[in-house]
Amino acid sequence: MPDNKVNPTHSKSTGLPRKRFYRARAHSNPLSDSHFPVPLTPAHVDYSLHYPQADSSKKIKFADIGCGFGGLLISLSTLFPETLMIGMELRDKVSEYVKERILSLRVANPGQYQNISVVRTNSMKYIPNHFEKAQLSKMFFLFPDPHFKEKNHRRRVISPFLLDEYAYVLEVGGIIYTITDVEELGEWMKSCLENHPLFEPLTEKELEVDPAVKLLSSATEEGQKVARNDGQTFQAVFRRIARSDQSVVQDVKHVRFVTSDSFGSIYDYSILQS
Amino acid sequence: MDEEVAAETRKDTEVAPALIAVHPDRHSAVVAVGPELRAFDLLTISAVSLLDDSVSGEQPSHKDNIRAIRFGAKGKLFVSAGDDKTLKIWSTQSWQCVSTVSSEKRVTAVAISNDGLHVCFADKFGLVWVVDLNQTSKDKKPTPTPLLSHYCSIITSLEFSPDNRFIISADRDFKIRVTNFPKNLLNGAHEIQSFCLGHTEFVSCLAFVPAQESPHSLLLSGSGDSTVRLWDISSGALLDTCEVAIKAGLLESNGNAEEHDHAVTDLCSTLDGLLVAVAIQSLRGIVLLSCDVSTKTLSFAKVVSIAGETFIPTCLANCSPTKELWMVTGVSSLPGYDYPSLARVLVISGIDVEEEPVVLEDDKIPGGEKLLETLQGTTSVDDNAFLAAAEAVKAAMCNLLIKKHYPFENREYRKKTRNDKKLKE
Questions:
Q1: A46 and A160 both lie in a single domain
Q2: What's the CATH code of the domain at A194?
Q3: Distance from CA of A153 to the nearest CA of B (A)
Q4: What is the DSSP letter of A41?
Q5: Which of B172, B184, B187, B190 to mutate to test the interface with A (most CBs of A within 10 A)?
C-alpha cells in the first residue's frame, strides 16, 4: 500500500478490507425510518465524490440494488469500463465494506475501478431521489431478501407497485435483471414482471448474448455460495418497453423506439444491437 | 405500567384538526371536527341533517376522527373519510349517503375526479385506491381497487389535475408523485409522469393554479419546511419557492431553530389563480401570495391578521363566487378541557387583487349566528382553549409526519464500538 499506515481491518497481503470486521446481519428492515442522508433530487447526487476521475458529464447508467458485498459491481466494472454504476445497500456496515473494497481496488489497480461506487440507502424508498426519469439502462436485483411470510410480502424489493418506480428510472429498452435461489420468490418476481404493462421478457437468444446475464449467478458472493452448495437458481430478465399505444420501428443495426409522451413531444431512442 | 402511560399519551396526542369545505357554488358549508360532520345549507340558511342508512338511529356516520373532506364533481358530490377506515360518498342534493366504502387502513386523503366518475383515497400505508362511481349502486357495496403506492409512507394529500389526466400524491417523505391516471383502472396506474422533488420536510398540502390560458397546469405545494413551491407537473421541475414563514416575519432568514413551528398546514388558490391563501402553524391569520402564471413565479402579497382572538387556521376553503376565504380552527378532542370537540369558523371577504381583505364579524358571516351555531357547535369562544388546541394540533402533526433526526455526531458515536470503526482509530 502506498501509505505506510497499516489499516488493521485490511488484509496485509492484498490490501483489501477483510470481511470479518464488517460482519452484519443478513437482513434489514426496509420499512423502518431511515437516518442516513438522502439526496434532495438526482441533481444533488455528488458525482465528484463517487467518481473522482470520471468525466463529469457522464451519468450513472447501471444500478445494483441491494449490492451486498459488491461482487457484481466489481465484475461489471471491468466488463463495462466506460459506464458509471452504483451499488445501493441498506446495511451500513456492508456498504462501508464495499466502499473500502472499491477504494483499495483503485489503489491496487491504478486507473481501474473508477466507474463504480456505493451508497447506503433504502432503494425501496429513495430511488427517485437518486435517478432521473429514464436515466438507467440496467438494474440488478440479485438474491434479494425472500420475505417468506405473506404478511411481509410488501417488504419484497420486486413488487407490482415498486416496479412502477423502476420503470420510471429505466430508459425504454433498459433491462432489469433478477435472480434468486428461492423458487417461490423466483416465481413471484417473474409474475410481477410479466403482469406489469411496461416490461417484456428477453428472448432466449437475447439472454445468450447478454454478457451481464452470465454474471448473475457467478459474480456475487451469494451466487457463489449457492453454486458451492449445488443450489438451483431462478432468474427473470425483462426489458422496459414503451406503452403499448406507441410504435416500435426496427431496422437492421439499430433497435429504434419512437415514442410520444402524453404532452405530444416525440422521443427517439436508439439502441445499438450487440 | 410505563408502557401503558406511553400508550395513553400517544392516544392523547393523536388528535385531528378541524376541517372545512365550501360548495363551489356556495350552496353549503361543511365542518368536520373529530367524528362529527356538520353541514349548513347557505341557500335556505338552515342546518342540514345528514341521512345515512348504513348506520342505525342516532349513531354518527363516522366512528373516529374524520381526516379528509371535500366537494367534487362541480358540487354534486361530497366525500368524507378518516380514522374509522370508511369513506362516505354523499349526494349534496339530498345530503344522503349514497355509498359507504371500506378501507383496510385509516384514510388520510381523498380526491374526486373532475368528471365525477372516480373517487380516490389514500391510506396510512401509502396506498392509493380508486372507486369507480359508475359501478356503485345502492345495494352493492363498492370495492376499491389499488392504484399506486408510495412505499411505506403516509400520503398527506391527493389531487386530480384539472384535465383529469394525472393523479398527484404527496407524502411525508418530501415527495410529490405525478402519475398518469389510467383508462383501465383494474390494472393500476403504472406510468409515472414525474416526481416533484425539492421540499426538505413533509409535504402537507397540494393545490392547482387553475390557469385557463396555459396548457399545463401549475401545481402548488406547502410543506413542513415552511415554504410554498410552484411546480411544472409534466417535468417535475421546481419553478419557484416562496419562503412564506420568513416573508411573513415569523422566521429570521438565517435562523433554523424550532423550524417545525412554522409548517404550512393548508393552502388554496382562488379561481383565477392569482392569489394563494396559506395557513401556517404559528400564524394568527393567513398569508396571501400572488402567483404570476405567465412568468411562473410566486411572490409574497400580504399577511391578513386576525385580531382579538387566538385563531390559527387548521383548514382553508375557497369560495370563488363571492371572493371569500372560509377558515376553521379546532381539534377533535382536547385533554384537560371539557369540550368534546372544538371548532371556530371565520370568513375573510374581498380575496381579490383589487380589494382589501376584511375579516368578517360574526354577525356579518353568511348565515350569521345560525351558521356558527351549527358549524361550531356553540357561539361562545374560549380563547385559552383555542390556544391549547393549536398546540395539540401542532404536536399531533409533528408526531405523525416528522421523523426523528439524529445529528451526524450522534450517529457516529453510536457506531464507535463497531469492529470496523474501532480498529481504524
A1: yes
A2: 3.40.50.150
A3: 13
A4: S
A5: B190
